Amino acid sequence: MGVTPGDDDPQVLERARVGDREAQASLIRGLQDVWFRYCWSMLRDDEMARDATQETARRFLAGLPGFRGASQLKTWSLGIATNVCRELRRKRRGGVAGESSLRLVRDAEAGPADRAAEREAQAALHRVVDSLPDRQREAVVLRYFEGLNTAETAEAMACSPGTVKATLSQALRKLRGQLEALA
Amino acid sequence: MSSPLREQLDQAGKAYRDLRYDGDLASELLATPLPVRRRTRWRAGMIGGVGLGMAAAIVVVVLLRGTGSGPGISNPNPPTDTLAGGDAAVPPETSHAVETPVTPTTTAAAQMTATPVVPPRINIDIRRFSLSRPSLATLNQRPDLSRSDGTPLRLTRPRYRPSAPRPAQTPSTPSDAPATGASRWLIDPPPVETS
Lengths: 183, 195
Known about the structure:
The structure holds two protein chains of two kinds.
Chain A: H1 10-17, H2 21-43, H3 46-63, H4 73-91, H5 100-108, H6 116-130, H7 134-145, H8 150-157, H9 161-182
Helix pairs in contact in A: 1-2, 2-3, 2-4, 3-4, 4-8, 5-6, 6-9, 7-8, 7-9, 8-9
Chain B: H1 3-17, H2 25-30, H3 35-67, H4 81-84, H5 108-111, E1 155-156, E2 186-187
Antiparallel strand pairs in B: 1-2
């Protein structure tokens, strides 16, 4: 079992930085789901999300000796994942899978059967989130889905907190408008 | 933010967090050596190979020095009597690599005077020497040209002909000496017998 994401163990982190394989494996196991769901939300493709997750882990291990602990490990590693996803999106420009909302709704179907209306609303929301521009989608996923605060979102996106606030404001306005239009 | 949208985002966040990576990423990555370690191993192998090659070259040179007798391999400290001459100057035929060479003692050094004897002055007429002529003594001897019947051959110089190409260098040798270069000795035809 890996360490809890966001709850960095200084001893495990120090051992991982000096090359302890066991400590590195513990960190990766604690963060692999975080990386995968974020990459999957950005790329909307299972195979590409797996590739992006593995590439994120490689860069994470390579950059670990230089990590000074100025931020949380999860935030720092999500910054790596953001860069990886941006590079992959640039390569795959124009080919959008458009499967994200379907998979998330399929996963949500495990709930009670009497919540059909709620599932429908979620599917609509995911479709709207998928239609957002890349930067706005990054901000929404990191801030509301992953639970980072504004400063951490700004660090993961490599921009200022003011930019994050402005991006989120634009994204919410667009979400609200499209959801009202669907209703 | 409006409350319905916030609730929807929270619900979507829950579904989002249910996503899992299918597999163990740590074992997938850490089972194979990292590229950095592979590069380091390759570099260490290359350095080891170069070092091994240098060691082999040193061993070969040492073996050649121990057994070889090539032109460039000689005793760096020859016996001092080599310069004085005499039988004692001949080094013993023992192997220098095995035994310490024994320097023979002679009285030649004691017989030397304190001040070297200056040889008497020799007057040399430098004009008698031709610097361009080879210093082989046999070149100054005229060939013994005689016929089988005993009549001597007369050697003459070829006459100068204007149409013939001029020799590239004027010989600086005396006229009685055999010339080199373009000048050649010609053999006259045998004398006609008149009865």
